[in-house]
Specification:
Blueprint (H helix, E strand, L loop, with lengths): L2 H5 L3 H4 L6 E3 L4 H10 L4 E5 L5 E6 H10 L24 H10 L4 E6 L2 E7 H24 L4 E6 L4 E4 L1 H7 L3 H4 L4 H4 L4 H8 L3 E9 L2 E11 L5 E10 L1 H32 L9 H13 L6 E4 L6 H12 L5 E5 L8 H6 E2 L12 E2 L1 H4 L4 E5 L6 H13 L1 E3 L6 E3 L3 E6 L3 H6 L5 H7 L2 E4 L10 H16 L5 E2 L2 H7 L6 H14 L5 E2 L6 H6 L3 H6 L4 H19 L4 H8 L3 H10 L3
Parallel strand pairs: 1-2, 11-18, 11-19, 12-15, 15-18, 20-21
Antiparallel strand pairs: 2-3, 4-5, 6-7, 6-10, 8-9, 9-10, 13-14, 16-17
Helix pairs in contact: 11-13, 12-13, 19-21, 24-25, 25-26
């Protein structure tokens, strides 16, 4: 038998089939003999078709004796013919109510017009109430094993049931709270509110005691006369969950703050105002980039390595107003076999070694933003075809999938190669070139921007000193002329690396000519001019020493012992000079 069967008993579960059925011709004496023999208080009188006609009980016999009725008379004549019957599928509780309302002690159970059993007061007492007791024990066992705290209060707010989970949750035993007023333990108990309103209260976050948060529901209980007789409350401890939610919310706000700060930092580093330049070519490039930034037009940035192509790309993105990500990918650093999966992503099982659940590609990640394709000239021809199709249709397909994914991604490409020469060599698609180079920005080399070297050097001095935590108090003006006289084949990137070296190797926060690497001093076309214009005797002597030691070391092929003999100094002195001048 299932729990649902136990909870709702039917008449068939508690009726007895041990009843006496007699025909209409049965005499009172014969009916009485059967009742005595079988220890029954009644006989059921049926006709030839088995239909119930009446019921005769021991109480009826007592009345007949007092009236002097002959016991040989048919029993049917003195039976109760207004018999109340019941169906076997009726709820046992309803059967009990019928017997109480009609003030009767027995109910014949009828099915298809025939009697199949009888329900008596003894059945209810011995069977029904016993089963009710079993049910109560079952329900108590179920309630005690629920994770939720369960409390039942009567109409006066007195606790009538308090399960084990309630004991654990509130550290109050059932013995201490049963038959006590709930408000004495929990002044703001919602059970009292439920009694007052007579309405359900569902899933309210409540704090019955300080520091204990619960998800609480209250259900009012009514009797058959619609009178409120009790309320049942269920409490689920959500203290940890709520605290975790608050922590997650705090962390989410931190992430939003950091994201906002990061974007501001990126914007401050890569907006057009941060691009240093007095040179006409760089000013023209900035003007074109500013004008094209708010549009969705594809941009091709060309120039030597280290001229600041990615800085321009980020500045265009920041000025575009696009809310998506800026995603950079170096086409020369990706193996041909991985190009498609990197750009378009893939689904689970697309190839051996694919990550379970798949992976989104750079196009999806940059959706609503900008995808920067650096070194576009190194992209394989077969990928160029697919990139062209995306630019035309605005749709991508993950590797291993036929599902189209729309993408609103702005393309900014860059290269240090001559794409037109690559087109002539059939190494780059002409149609892709014109699709990418709707607007083309050419960045000049640093050697053509000598007027910008000082401003760039100061910018990097400030950035690196803050980044490394090294305060620079002094910078010799001569360094700018020397740096401006260098050819800078590595362009701005090389200049920044040199400035970083000068900062981290500086002494007492001073940047002097000695801070400049030797290879720059040797190849700067203003070095001799700087030297001959100075009258610092100590500096002149140091320069002569450095030049002489360098020449001798070259002459003896780096042999320090021979160099010391040629220079007529001790070997230890030579080592000191070599270290001092970083030769």
């Amino acid at each position: 038998m299932s729990i649902s069967d136990l909870i709702v008993y039917k008449v068939r579960d508690i009726m007895t089939k041990n009843f006496i059925e007699v025909p209409v011709s049965e005499s009172i004496k014969d009916a009485l003999d059967k009742m005595i023999e079988l220890y029954r208080d009644e006989v059921l009188i049926t006709n030839a078709r088995g239909n119930l006609i009446g019921i005769f009980t021991m109480k009826d016999i007592a009345k007949l004796k007092n009236e002097g009725i002959c016991f040989s008379s048919p029993v049917v004549e003195f039976s109760n013919k207004n018999v109340v019957t019941i169906d076997c599928n009726t709820c046992a509780r309803d059967a009990r109510d019928i017997m109480i309302d009609n003030n009767i002690g027995r109910l014949p159970v009828v099915e298809n017009g025939r009697v199949i059993g009888i329900l008596t007061s003894e059945n209810l007492r011995d069977t029904f109430y016993l089963k009710m007791d079993e049910l109560f024990n079952l329900q108590t066992n179920v309630f005690d094993n629920l994770h939720e705290a369960v409390c039942i209060c009567d109409e006066n707010g007195l606790v009538k049931y308090w399960n084990r989970s309630a004991e654990k949750l509130y550290n109050v035993t059932a013995n201490n709270i049963i038959d006590k007023f709930i408000g004495d333990f929990f002044p703001n108990a919602l059970s009292l509110e439920g009694l007052k309103l007579g309405k359900r209260i569902e899933n309210v976050i409540h704090e019955p005691v300080k520091g204990k948060l619960v998800a609480l529901s209250v259900v009012p209980l009514y009797n058959s006369r619609n009178n409120l007789i009790a309320v049942v409350s269920t409490d689920r401890d959500v203290t940890e969950a709520v605290n975790l939610t608050k922590q997650l919310e705090d962390e989410r706000k931190k992430v939003e703050f950091l994201e906002h700060a990061y974007k501001n930092e990126i914007a401050s580093k890569y907006n057009f105002s941060s691009i240093i330049g007095k040179n006409k070519k760089i000013i023209d490039a900035i003007a074109i980039a500013q004008k094209v930034a708010p549009t969705s037009t594809s941009v091709l940035i060309t120039g030597k390595s280290g001229t600041g192509k990615e800085v321009f790309a980020k500045a265009i993105h920041e000025a575009s107003g696009r809310t998506g990500n800026f995603v950079a990918i170096n086409c020369s650093a990706i193996p041909d076999s991985l190009f498609e999966s990197e750009l378009f992503g893939y689904v689970e099982g697309a190839f051996t070694g694919a990550i379970k659940k798949g992976k989104i590609g750079k196009f999806e990640f940059a959706n609503g933003g900008t995808l920067f394709l650096d070194e576009i000239g190194d992209m394989p021809l077969e990928m160029q075809v697919k990139i062209l199709r995306v630019l035309q249709d605005g749709v991508i397909y993950r590797l291993g999938s036929e599902k189209a994914i729309s993408t609103d991604t702005r393309i900014v490409a860059a290269t240090n190669k001559d794409l037109k020469r690559l087109i002539a060599e059939d190494k780059f698609r002409e149609d892709l070139f014109y699709r990418l180079a709707v607007v083309q920005i050419q960045l000049p080399s640093l050697k053509d921007r000598k007027e910008d070297v000082k401003d760039l050097a100061n910018l990097f001095l400030d950035q690196v000193s803050k980044q490394e935590g090294i305060k620079i108090n002094y910078a010799d003006d001569r360094i700018y002329r020397i740096l401006a006289g260098y050819k800078w084949e590595g362009n701005i990137r090389e200049l920044k690396n040199v400035i970083q070296r000068m900062v981290v190797l500086s002494n007492d926060g001073r940047i002097t000519v000695d801070s400049i690497p030797e290879y720059i001093l040797e190849n700067s076309n203003v070095e001799e001019e700087v030297k001959t214009n100075e009258y610092d005797l100590e500096k002149i002597i140091e320069d002569i020493e450095k030049k002489t030691i360098r020449e001798v070391m070259s002459m003896v092929n780096g042999n320090k012992q021979q160099a010391a003999k040629v220079l007529n100094v001790k070997r230890s002195t030579l080592y000191y000079k070599l270290n001092k001048y970083e030769i």
